[in-house]
Amino acid sequence: MKVETKRKIASVFFPERCPYCSELVLPCEIACDECIKDMPKEIFHKQIGGIFSVASALPYKDQYKDAILRLKFGKRKQFSYQLAKYMYLKFFGEVIFEDYDLISSVPLHKDNLKERGFNQSELLARDLSRFINVSYTELLNKSRKNKPQHSLTGDKREKNVKGVYRCIDKNLVEGKRILLVDDIITTGFTLTECASILEKAGAKEIMCLTFAITLPKTT
Question: Which residue among 9, 58, 86, 88 is buried most deeply as judged by most CB within 10 Å?
Fold first, then answer.
C-alpha cells in the first residue's frame, strides 16, 4: 500500500496537522495555506569543507525551527513526510535527483538512537527517497559518542566530530553519486566530516541536503 494511501486512511482516526502551526490540514498536505504562503521562495546554499555543496529548504528559526523540534523531541514522526515532501518540491529543478545513485543520512550514536527511538535525519532521507525514486542506503555509522554540537562553539565543534563517524562498507560507496541528508546545518562541521569520509571511501560526488539552515545573525 502506498504511503499516501496509508496516511489518508490513518487521517480518519488521527487527523493530520500543519507541522508549523498545528492547524488541521488535508491528508498528505505539506502545511496549511497560511504557512505555505509565508514560506521563503529561495533555496539557501552553503559551501562546506571547501568542496561540498549544501542546499537547505528553510531557515532554522521561528515556525520552521518549531517544526524540527516537534519532529525531533516531540516525537511527531508523522511530520517527517511533510517536511521531506516540502524539501522535494523546493529542490525539484534545482537538484537533478536522477543524477544520484543513493541517498543516505547523518547517523546517530546507538545510545542516542535508543533514547530517542528514531533518527530524524534518517526519517527525512527515507521519505525523500520515495519522492525522488532514489534508494535509501545506510552508508555511515557513529562509532563514538560525542558532545552535542549545539553545546559547543567555534573550533570545538570541528574537533568534536573528528573520528566519530565510519563508513559501513566502501563497496556501497565507491563510484557512487550520493545525496547526504541532515535535518539542519549550522557550522557544517558534521556534514563536512561525513561527506569527507564518503569521499575517501571512493564516492564520485556528494551533495548535501538539509531541511533547515542556521543563518548568521544580522544587526
Answer: 58
- Between the alpha carbon of residue 137 and those of residues 3, 91, 103, 118, 129, the distances in Å are 19, 20, 6, 16, 10
**What separation in angstroms does the CA of 78 have from each of 91, 183, 201?**
21, 15, 34
Interval 79-134: pLDDT, tens: 999 999 999 999 998 999 999 999 999 999 999 999 999 999 999 999 999 999 99
pLDDT at 10 (0 to 100): 62
Q: Pick from 134, 48, 51, 59: which is nearest to 90 by CA? A: 59
pTM reported for the whole predicted model: 0.92
pLDDT at 1 over 50: no
